[in-house]
């Protein structure tokens, strides 16, 4: 598909004061424009932002006034008596200091941080001749307000409690290898690095890391982690970001469109180049729009790491992660009461849909992904898109892997004619969202988007959600036969699906309620001549 042109709860940590005394101790307690045409080299068209407001960001970023959520437990002061030591013997040790009381109203946290200081004062020493024994040392600090709930959980499963960009960074994993025998079957997302199959939720962080490692090596290139320095500021109109690494630095800014009469902090959705779910719709749902520029993202990435070795969507995903760093850090420091960093989503259409898809897969702080019409290089399966059954619209061949490679959307072995040899496919990216939220808005009237290949990835990835007990967290909306044949438009038929996803993962007004709705032209429940059983040789395990 032709490349569209590019235009150039609050996490508060509050510590109770610790008191230290000698002798007596106390305890503290949707852009428009077609990208349908197959190309062998990049072309440029125009993408029109679907944002209801356009802002280039402020010249001076005002400092917001922080709002404290949830009171801190009040510590008690408990004197600790020490018995004088006898002349010939050491003084009696002071009693152990007492922890402070539990919080009466903890801040929003999963799991709650309700207890007072967890570290008791140390026992005083007994030596001292005629001197009195020292009292116990200062008790642990009172429990503060914990971070907001990270993501919707299943059966009390607390996924990513430390709210990390990447939960599997400590997993010891081998180097992935190409398949010894090429296979057109979709690789098993439950097959672990040691050759066994996943059987428990506790294994998911490392299994997800294994899926990512295979994708990075054979499809996208490696996404760098947080650089040496990330600083910035948050206002009601923009997030400013400054990054440094290896002696290089870069600055960029992303505008924010807040919903009117918003009660701060608000959920927010990153719009790739202003496309995807429209700002006007988000505003009606009480969600802010954060519009990031791909050009600015690539420029910042290239200054720090150079421009080669990774697919463009990795550069975009890296830049969005740095914006999230600033939102999280500033919320903790009292400099962000504007955007709730625990209620973030990503959206975008066409090439920007590829961006939105990969941004959310590679950063586990994103609560919800809603890519739109992302095609090959996005949601479309690299294996399925090459098959003869090309989709519902005769004469419109799906965009092939080599076309996506020519645009810089894929890289490495997948671009070297090794599609059936790589141990990964796009359904791994869908699986990497679990147990977070994922919904895609597809357009089954445009065969060049490869809707069959996109549904294949969604259906195969959904098996991981099912195994983890969060089947309602994944969805696919293919569009209705009666919808117009327009690329990157936001149809009335897509509103219900989008609203349910937002209410389930951002505004938390309802339980997640995603669903698979291919709705292709023949009105069947599956895309034309597609049967997932023809592409998988693995069973979905029971995972506890």
Q: Could you walk me through the main structural features you see in this protein, from its secondary elements to its overall organization?
A:
The protein has 544 residues and is α/β, with parallel strands linked by helices. Helix content is 20%, strand content 12%. The chain has nine helices and ten strands. A ten-stranded mixed β-sheet has the order 1-2-3-5-4-6-7-8-9-10, sandwiched between helices. α8 links the parallel β8 (437-441) and β9. The chain is globular and about 55 Å long. The two termini are 41 Å apart.
Topology at a glance:
Blueprint: H1 204-220, E1 229-234, E2 238-245, E3 248-257, E4 266-272, H2 279-284, E5 288-292, H3 294-305, H4 312-333, E6 339-349, H5 351-362, E7 368-372, H6 401-406, H7 427-431, E8 437-441, H8 451-467, E9 474-477, H9 495-505, E10 516-517
Parallel strand pairs: 4-5, 4-6, 6-7, 7-8, 8-9, 9-10
Antiparallel strand pairs: 1-2, 2-3, 3-5
Helix pairs in contact: 3-4, 4-5
Q: For the record, give the distance between the C-alpha atoms at the N and C termini, rounded to a whole number.
A: 41 Å
Spans of 5+ residues with little confidence (pLDDT < 50)?
1-155
Give the proportion of residues in helices. 10-25%
Report strand %.
Answer: 5-15%
């Amino acid at each position: 598909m032709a490349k569209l042109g590019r235009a150039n709860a609050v996490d508060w940590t509050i510590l109770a004061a610790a008191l230290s005394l000698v002798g007596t101790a106390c305890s503290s307690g949707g852009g428009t424009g077609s990208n349908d045409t197959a190309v062998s080299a990049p072309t440029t068209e125009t993408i029109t932002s679907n944002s209801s407001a356009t802002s280039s960001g402020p010249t001076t970023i005002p400092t917001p006034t922080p709002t404290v959520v949830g009171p801190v437990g009040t510590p008690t002061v408990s004197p600790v008596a020490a018995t004088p030591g006898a002349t010939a013997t050491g003084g009696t040790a002071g009693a152990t200091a007492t922890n402070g009381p539990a919080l009466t109203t903890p801040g929003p946290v999963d799991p709650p941080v309700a207890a007072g200081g967890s570290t008791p004062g140390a026992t005083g020493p007994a030596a001292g001749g005629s001197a009195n024994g020292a009292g116990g040392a200062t008790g642990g600090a009172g429990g503060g307000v914990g971070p907001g709930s990270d993501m919707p959980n299943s059966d009390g499963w607390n996924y990513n409690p430390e709210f990390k960009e990447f939960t599997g960074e400590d997993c010891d994993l081998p180097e992935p290898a190409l398949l010894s025998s090429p296979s057109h079957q979709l690789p098993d997302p439950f097959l672990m690095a040691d050759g066994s199959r996943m059987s428990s939720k506790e294994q998911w962080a490392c299994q997800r890391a294994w899926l990512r490692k295979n994708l990075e090596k054979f499809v996208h290139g490696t996404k760098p982690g947080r650089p040496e320095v990330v600083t910035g500021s948050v206002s009601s109109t923009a997030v400013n970001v400054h990054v440094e690494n290896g002696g290089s630095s870069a600055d960029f800014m992303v505008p924010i469109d807040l919903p009117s009469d918003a009660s701060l902090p608000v959920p927010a959705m990153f719009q790739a180049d202003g496309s995807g779910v429209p700002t006007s719709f988000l505003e009606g749902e009480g969600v802010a729009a954060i519009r990031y520029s791909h050009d600015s993202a690539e420029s910042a990435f290239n200054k720090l790491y150079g421009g080669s070795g990774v697919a463009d969507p990795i550069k975009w995903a890296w830049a969005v992660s740095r914006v999230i760093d600033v939102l999280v850090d500033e919320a903790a420091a009292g400099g962000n009461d504007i955007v709730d960093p625990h209620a973030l989503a990503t959206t975008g259409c066409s090439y920007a849909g590829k961006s939105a898809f990969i941004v959310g897969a590679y950063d586990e702080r994103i609560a919800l992904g809603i890519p739109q019409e992302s095609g090959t290089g996005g949601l479309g399966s690299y294996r399925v898109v090459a098959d003869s059954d090309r989709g519902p619209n005769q004469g419109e061949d799906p965009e092939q892997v080599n076309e996506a490679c020519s645009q810089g959307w894929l890289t490495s072995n997948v671009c070297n004619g090794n599609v059936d040899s790589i141990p990964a496919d796009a359904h791994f990216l869908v699986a990497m969202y679990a147990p977070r939220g994922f919904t895609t808005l597809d357009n089954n009237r445009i065969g060049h988007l490869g809707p069959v290949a996109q549904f294949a990835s969604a259906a195969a990835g959904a098996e991981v959600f099912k195994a983890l007990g969060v089947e309602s967290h994944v969805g696919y909306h293919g569009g209705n036969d009666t919808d117009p044949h327009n690329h990157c438009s936001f149809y009335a038929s897509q509103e219900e699906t989008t609203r349910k996803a937002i209410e389930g993962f951002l505004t938390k007004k309802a339980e997640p309620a995603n669903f698979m709705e291919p709705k292709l032209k023949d009105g069947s429940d599956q895309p034309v001549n597609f049967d997932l059983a023809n592409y998988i040789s693995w069973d979905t395990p029971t995972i506890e």
